[in-house]
Specification:
CATH superfamily of chain A: ACP-like
CATH class of the largest domain in chain B: Alpha Beta
CATH superfamily of the largest domain in chain B: Thiolase/Chalcone synthase
Shape of chain B: globular
Order of helices and strands of chain B: EEHHEHEHEHEEEEEHEHHHEE
Distance between the termini of chain B: 18 Å
CATH architecture of chain A: Orthogonal Bundle
Number of helices of chain B: 9
Number of strands of chain B: 13
Low-confidence stretches of chain B: none
Helix content of chain B: 25-40%
Number of helices of chain A: 4
Largest sheet of chain B: 5 strands, mixed
Largest sheet of chain A: none
Number of domains of chain B: 2
Strand content of chain B: 15-25%
Largest interface: A-B, 8 and 11 residues
Oligomer: heterodimer
Structural class of chain A: mainly alpha
Shape of chain A: globular
């Protein structure tokens, strides 16, 4: 799975959890600040990313932007 | 094989109501913050009554509602992580208070799944044939093990007790269960640690910080959503039922957001999940029986209804029991 596909999938997960349009979400989006997500939204986004890509996020605080999530999956899959 | 049926339910809790605004006066928090992340608006907090007060009151009501005498009770199991004493057990305190002299009485510990584990245990005692009925109660005063200066945990919990009188029957009742533990991750939710100080070692005797509730919120959130969904699916599959066949889901009342995730992933309308954490907070082992009792007191349960009770919490434990009312 390429970087673009990972981004697409993560974008879907975040859009679903936050109730936003996919188009609003870019690599630079800060999930908490730009999408008004709280810590529990972020937990659920990370849970879904873990399930989708079969990875384990030890430090959820390290995922701030969409790019952080894409990079994490890219380097751990 | 014999079946076991819930005949009566009851609950008891402190009169004192502590709102989110009350908490905002002692820690840096707000009603909005707490409500949005937990669904909790207020909780009942002991004015000094210990756990046994609420457990005994619940047991007293159960005898009245089931119209059985104290002498007729065969078994009393109480679940709690906050009993009054190490010994006596809460169950034996009930025995003394109510005079249930023919009952075998003991407590069990399974954190927030405690009532479910107690129900499952009593079910087996009765099915084994020697006992015909039981009083099963979950009761807590979590307020005594909460660090009231820690805003991340003190907003979550409340005090109270709830329980059920159950007895043997020929059909219906407790249909199927899925219970389990994952002890290897117990460190994500702990409380009640006491230091092993004695006259022959040099360990200082003071209140260990681990006396207070500690929780890794993200890990508990993950455990709860995954395990509850898995265990409900398994019980439905084994019983050959669909989620639509369940009249009420009664989850442990830890956090409305956890319940939202569970409902969404199971594809069940959110309103089929009974919730009262708005008024009680998380009362650990008492939460499911308090919620079950509320449904029952409102007259919303009809014989034949299928009800799914699901607990999850410390240790780490989970327990789902399917009941035909």
């Amino acid at each position: 799975m390429g970087n673009g596909e990972i981004f697409e999938k993560i974008r879907e997960i975040i859009a679903e959890q936050t109730g936003r349009d996919k188009e609003e979400i870019t690599m630079e989006t800060n999930v908490k600040e730009d999408l008004d997500a709280d810590s529990l939204d972020l937990f659920q986004i990370i849970n879904d990313i873990e399930d989708e890509f079969d990875v384990s996020v030890e430090d959820p605080e390290s995922i701030v932007t969409v790019k952080d999530a894409v990079d994490f999956v890219e380097s751990h899959k | 094989m014999k079946k076991v049926k819930v005949i009566a339910t009851a609950a008891a809790y402190p009169e004192q109501v502590v709102t989110n605004d009350d908490l905002a006066k002692i820690v840096d928090t707000s009603d909005e913050w707490i409500s949005q992340r937990t669904g909790i608006k207020e909780r009942r907090i002991s004015s000094g009554e210990n756990t046994s007060v609420f457990v005994i009151e619940t047991a007293r009501k159960l005898l009245e509602r089931a119209e059985v005498s104290a002498e007729e009770i065969d078994l009393i199991i109480v679940a709690s992580v906050t009993p009054d004493y190490g010994t006596p057990s809460l169950a034996c305190m009930v025995q003394k208070a109510l005079g249930t002299k023919n009952a075998v009485c003991f407590d069990i510990v399974a954190a927030c799944s405690g009532f479910m584990f107690a129900l499952s245990t009593a079910d087996k005692f009765i099915k084994a044939g020697k006992y015909r009925n039981a009083i099963v109660i979950g009761g807590e005063t979590l307020s005594k093990i909460v660090d009231w200066s820690d805003r991340s945990t003190c907003v979550l919990f409340g005090d109270g007790a709830g329980g059920a009188y159950i007895e043997e029957t020929d059909e219906g009742g407790l249909l199927r269960e899925n219970i389990g533990t994952e002890g290897e991750c117990y460190e994500i939710l702990t409380e009640g640690y006491t230091r092993c100080a004695n006259a022959f070692n040099d360990i200082e005797s003071y209140q260990d910080p681990r006396w207070y509730v500690f929780m890794n919120g993200r890990e508990v959130f993950k455990f709860a959503t995954k395990k509850v969904i898995q265990s409900i699916r398994q019980v439905l599959d084994e019983e050959g039922l669909q989620a639509e066949d369940i009249r009420y889901f009664i989850p442990h009342q830890a956090n409305a957001r956890i319940v939202e995730v569970i409902a969404k992933k199971l594809n069940v309308p959110f309103d089929r999940f009974e919730m009262n954490m708005e008024r009680f907070g998380n009362t650990s082992s008492a939460s499911i029986p308090i919620a079950l009792n509320e449904l029952n007191e409102k007259g919303l349960l009809e014989r034949g209804d299928k009800i799914m009770l699901s607990g999850f919490g410390g240790d780490m434990t989970w327990a789902t029991v399917l009941i035909e009312w």
